[in-house]
Amino acid sequence: MDQSLVQTNLEEVLEPSNDLEELVEGIVEEVTPARRGPSYHPTRWELVNRGLDIVDDVSGGRADWVVRFVSYIFFGGAAALINLAVFAGALYLLPLSLNDFWRTLIAGAIACEISLVSNFIPNDYFTFRHMPGRERSWLARCARFHATSLVGSLLTILIQQFFSHAVHIMPMLAQAIALILVLFYNFSFHHLFTYRHKKSSCDQ
């Protein structure tokens, strides 16, 4: 066989084809992670967005959770102040003929219910506005928020009663401790239940 012919055939075999190049490029694209967009919804302030970009990089794309948690703490803090104010007012207005257990129990229940309503409206509009469960109707969201928060309210009352009557600390301080502890429960369960993805007929 002619040596030049063999060399030509060998070069054709060794020369990468277009199909092979496309295959390699496809594999590289699949292996190389695509650049993700920000996990959060950008704000109108560039400085805030830069800070959230840093949080995204450090937390592995969890800046949206940080934004929601900060927002939830802000509105939850306002609701907690309302709770404490109503609790103090109820303690003042309830008759002294009631024993301490019933006075703190009734005051705690009233304070929890009023602060719950004042907590839902701003959190529904601002904190969880981009969550999948926001597709539900306003009444459905309110009911689910109420159900989650009612469990939190019961926990608040139980914790407050425990610190007031078992640990024997001041009722106002016991109420504040209970509110802080239940804050993390409420935030978690609003993600897991209240604003969880609404199942479509295709998902069922």
From TrEMBL:
Its main location: membrane. The chain crosses the membrane at residues 69-95, 101-121, 142-163, 169-189. InterPro entries: GtrA_CellWall_Glycosyl (IPR051401), GtrA_DPMS_TM (IPR007267). One of its GO terms (biological process) is polysaccharide biosynthetic process. The keyword Transmembrane helix applies. Pfam families: GtrA_DPMS_TM. Residues 72-194 form the GtrA/DPMS transmembrane domain. It comes from the Bacteria. Keywords: Membrane, Transmembrane, Transmembrane helix. It is a multi-pass membrane protein. It is found in: Membrane. GO terms for cellular component: plasma membrane. Belongs to the GtrA family. This is GtrA/DPMS transmembrane domain-containing protein. It comes from Dictyobacter vulcani.
